[in-house]
Amino acid sequence: MDAYVTLETLMSDSVTKKHLPKAGYSHSIAVAESAYELAVERGVCVDLATKAGLLHDIGHTIWETKGEWDYESYSEYDIHTIKGAERAHELLTLKDEDLGKARAISLAILFHSDSSQVSANVELTDLQRLIADADNMNKEQGGEHHNQEISFEQALQRIRRLDMLVYRHISMQQCCEACKFEQECKLK
Protein backbone atom coordinates (compact mmCIF):
# COMPACT_ATOMS: atom_id res chain seq x y z
CA MET A 1 0.00 0.00 0.00
CA ASP A 2 1.15 3.53 -0.72
CA ALA A 3 1.68 6.08 2.03
CA TYR A 4 -1.41 7.79 3.39
CA VAL A 5 -2.10 11.14 1.67
CA THR A 6 -2.74 13.91 4.20
CA LEU A 7 -4.67 17.13 3.82
CA GLU A 8 -1.43 19.02 4.43
CA THR A 9 0.18 17.20 1.51
CA LEU A 10 -2.69 18.27 -0.73
CA MET A 11 -2.76 21.81 0.63
CA SER A 12 0.98 22.28 0.10
CA ASP A 13 0.99 21.17 -3.53
CA SER A 14 1.62 23.79 -6.22
CA VAL A 15 -1.65 22.94 -8.01
CA THR A 16 -3.65 23.60 -4.84
CA LYS A 17 -1.68 26.75 -4.07
CA LYS A 18 -2.42 28.04 -7.56
CA HIS A 19 -6.15 27.31 -7.71
CA LEU A 20 -7.58 27.16 -4.18
CA PRO A 21 -7.01 30.86 -3.37
CA LYS A 22 -9.46 31.73 -6.16
CA ALA A 23 -12.19 30.05 -4.13
CA GLY A 24 -10.74 31.29 -0.85
CA TYR A 25 -8.75 29.31 1.70
CA SER A 26 -11.18 30.29 4.43
CA HIS A 27 -14.20 28.83 2.65
CA SER A 28 -12.40 25.69 1.47
CA ILE A 29 -11.15 24.88 4.95
CA ALA A 30 -14.48 25.69 6.58
CA VAL A 31 -16.14 23.21 4.21
CA ALA A 32 -13.49 20.57 5.03
CA GLU A 33 -14.08 21.14 8.76
CA SER A 34 -17.85 20.91 8.33
CA ALA A 35 -17.41 17.81 6.17
CA TYR A 36 -15.45 16.17 8.99
CA GLU A 37 -18.20 16.89 11.51
CA LEU A 38 -20.94 15.70 9.17
CA ALA A 39 -18.97 12.56 8.27
CA VAL A 40 -18.59 11.59 11.92
CA GLU A 41 -22.28 12.28 12.53
CA ARG A 42 -23.48 10.40 9.42
CA GLY A 43 -20.99 7.53 9.41
CA VAL A 44 -19.37 8.59 6.13
CA CYS A 45 -15.62 8.13 5.56
CA VAL A 46 -13.87 11.10 7.23
CA ASP A 47 -10.85 10.75 4.96
CA LEU A 48 -12.90 11.07 1.77
CA ALA A 49 -15.13 13.78 3.23
CA THR A 50 -12.33 16.08 4.39
CA LYS A 51 -10.36 15.74 1.16
CA ALA A 52 -13.44 16.41 -0.97
CA GLY A 53 -14.36 19.30 1.32
CA LEU A 54 -10.94 20.87 1.03
CA LEU A 55 -10.75 20.50 -2.75
CA HIS A 56 -14.43 21.06 -3.60
CA ASP A 57 -13.83 24.50 -5.17
CA ILE A 58 -10.41 23.88 -6.74
CA GLY A 59 -12.03 24.43 -10.15
CA HIS A 60 -12.87 28.08 -9.49
CA THR A 61 -11.63 30.92 -11.59
CA ILE A 62 -11.80 34.56 -10.61
CA TRP A 63 -15.02 36.10 -11.87
CA GLU A 64 -14.44 39.82 -12.06
CA THR A 65 -15.80 42.64 -14.14
CA LYS A 66 -13.86 45.89 -13.94
CA GLY A 67 -11.97 44.61 -10.90
CA GLU A 68 -15.12 43.72 -8.92
CA TRP A 69 -16.52 40.30 -7.99
CA ASP A 70 -19.16 39.47 -10.62
CA TYR A 71 -21.55 37.05 -8.92
CA GLU A 72 -24.12 37.23 -11.73
CA SER A 73 -21.63 36.08 -14.39
CA TYR A 74 -20.29 33.44 -12.02
CA SER A 75 -23.80 32.12 -11.37
CA GLU A 76 -24.64 32.05 -15.08
CA TYR A 77 -21.46 30.61 -16.65
CA ASP A 78 -19.64 28.73 -13.92
CA ILE A 79 -18.33 25.19 -14.56
CA HIS A 80 -16.10 24.94 -11.48
CA THR A 81 -17.48 21.54 -10.53
CA ILE A 82 -16.31 20.01 -13.80
CA LYS A 83 -12.90 21.69 -13.73
CA GLY A 84 -12.53 20.95 -10.03
CA ALA A 85 -13.29 17.25 -10.38
CA GLU A 86 -10.64 16.96 -13.07
CA ARG A 87 -8.01 18.98 -11.17
CA ALA A 88 -8.65 17.10 -7.94
CA HIS A 89 -8.45 13.71 -9.64
CA GLU A 90 -5.16 14.59 -11.28
CA LEU A 91 -3.73 15.97 -8.03
CA LEU A 92 -4.85 12.96 -5.98
CA THR A 93 -3.46 10.42 -8.42
CA LEU A 94 -0.16 12.31 -8.68
CA LYS A 95 0.06 12.14 -4.87
CA ASP A 96 -0.48 8.35 -5.09
CA GLU A 97 -3.94 8.40 -3.55
CA ASP A 98 -5.80 5.13 -3.95
CA LEU A 99 -7.50 5.28 -7.36
CA GLY A 100 -10.91 4.33 -5.96
CA LYS A 101 -10.67 7.03 -3.33
CA ALA A 102 -9.52 9.59 -5.92
CA ARG A 103 -12.55 8.73 -8.04
CA ALA A 104 -14.99 8.99 -5.10
CA ILE A 105 -13.54 12.35 -4.02
CA SER A 106 -13.63 13.70 -7.58
CA LEU A 107 -17.24 12.65 -8.08
CA ALA A 108 -18.19 14.33 -4.80
CA ILE A 109 -16.60 17.51 -6.17
CA LEU A 110 -18.38 17.13 -9.52
CA PHE A 111 -21.81 16.87 -7.88
CA HIS A 112 -21.40 19.23 -4.90
CA SER A 113 -23.21 22.16 -6.48
CA ASP A 114 -26.24 22.68 -8.63
CA SER A 115 -24.38 25.48 -10.45
CA SER A 116 -23.52 22.93 -13.14
CA GLN A 117 -26.14 21.10 -15.13
CA VAL A 118 -24.25 17.81 -14.71
CA SER A 119 -25.89 17.57 -11.28
CA ALA A 120 -29.41 17.59 -12.66
CA ASN A 121 -31.35 14.38 -12.02
CA VAL A 122 -28.40 12.64 -10.33
CA GLU A 123 -29.03 10.37 -7.35
CA LEU A 124 -26.29 11.49 -4.94
CA THR A 125 -24.26 9.12 -2.79
CA ASP A 126 -23.94 9.83 0.93
CA LEU A 127 -20.50 11.41 0.36
CA GLN A 128 -21.74 13.60 -2.49
CA ARG A 129 -24.73 14.80 -0.46
CA LEU A 130 -22.46 15.46 2.52
CA ILE A 131 -20.11 17.69 0.47
CA ALA A 132 -23.06 19.62 -0.96
CA ASP A 133 -24.42 20.08 2.58
CA ALA A 134 -21.03 21.16 3.98
CA ASP A 135 -20.64 23.68 1.16
CA ASN A 136 -24.15 25.06 1.70
CA MET A 137 -23.47 25.44 5.44
CA ASN A 138 -20.57 27.75 4.62
CA LYS A 139 -22.08 29.99 1.95
CA GLU A 140 -22.81 33.69 2.18
CA GLN A 141 -25.13 35.84 0.09
CA GLY A 142 -23.74 36.92 -3.27
CA GLY A 143 -20.79 34.53 -3.09
CA GLU A 144 -19.09 36.57 -0.37
CA HIS A 145 -17.78 33.36 1.22
CA HIS A 146 -15.18 33.28 -1.57
CA ASN A 147 -13.89 36.70 -0.54
CA GLN A 148 -13.10 35.93 3.12
CA GLU A 149 -9.32 35.96 3.32
CA ILE A 150 -6.89 34.15 5.58
CA SER A 151 -3.19 33.65 5.01
CA PHE A 152 -1.72 30.41 3.74
CA GLU A 153 -0.04 29.97 7.13
CA GLN A 154 -3.38 30.28 8.95
CA ALA A 155 -4.95 27.87 6.45
CA LEU A 156 -2.13 25.37 6.96
CA GLN A 157 -2.51 25.55 10.74
CA ARG A 158 -6.22 24.69 10.47
CA ILE A 159 -5.49 21.88 8.02
CA ARG A 160 -2.90 20.37 10.36
CA ARG A 161 -5.50 20.38 13.15
CA LEU A 162 -8.00 18.69 10.85
CA ASP A 163 -5.38 16.13 9.78
CA MET A 164 -4.90 15.25 13.47
CA LEU A 165 -8.64 14.74 13.92
CA VAL A 166 -8.84 12.51 10.83
CA TYR A 167 -5.74 10.58 11.94
CA ARG A 168 -7.21 10.05 15.40
CA HIS A 169 -10.54 8.92 13.97
CA ILE A 170 -8.92 6.39 11.64
CA SER A 171 -6.25 5.18 14.09
CA MET A 172 -8.86 4.53 16.77
CA GLN A 173 -10.48 2.25 14.20
CA GLN A 174 -13.62 4.29 14.17
CA CYS A 175 -14.14 3.06 10.65
CA CYS A 176 -16.88 4.63 8.69
CA GLU A 177 -19.97 2.51 8.32
CA ALA A 178 -19.76 0.22 5.30
CA CYS A 179 -16.69 2.05 3.95
CA LYS A 180 -15.36 0.15 0.98
CA PHE A 181 -11.99 1.89 1.50
CA GLU A 182 -11.37 0.56 5.01
CA GLN A 183 -8.08 -1.08 3.97
CA GLU A 184 -6.89 2.00 2.07
CA CYS A 185 -7.49 4.21 5.11
CA LYS A 186 -5.09 2.29 7.32
CA LEU A 187 -2.33 4.66 8.38
CA LYS A 188 1.33 3.78 7.98
Inertia-based shape: globular
Q: What is the count of helical runs? A: 9
H/E topology pattern? HHHHEEHHHHH
User: Can you give the mean pLDDT?
Assistant: 82
CATH fold name: Hypothetical protein af1432
Description of the structure:
There is one protein chain. The radius of gyration is 16 Å and the shape is globular. The chain has about 190 residues and is an all-alpha fold. β1 (about 65) and β2 (about 70) form a beta hairpin. It has a two-stranded antiparallel sheet with strand order 1-2. The model has no long low-confidence stretch (mean pLDDT about 80). It has one domain (about 5-170): Hypothetical protein af1432 (Orthogonal Bundle), CATH 1.10.3210. The protein has helices spanning about 5-10, 15-25, 25-40, 45-55, 70-75, 80-95, 100-110, 125-135, 150-170; strands spanning about 65, 70.
Essential attributes:
188 residues; mainly alpha; Hypothetical protein af1432; two-stranded antiparallel sheet; 9 helices; 2% strand
How would you summarize the topology of this molecule?
Layout lengths: L6 H5 L2 H10 L1 H18 L3 H10 L8 E2 L2 E2 L1 H7 L2 H15 L4 H12 L15 H12 L14 H20 L17
Antiparallel strand pairs: 1-2
Helix pairs in contact: 3-4, 3-8, 3-9, 4-7, 4-8, 6-7, 7-8
Brief account:
Helices cover 58% and strands 2% of the residues.
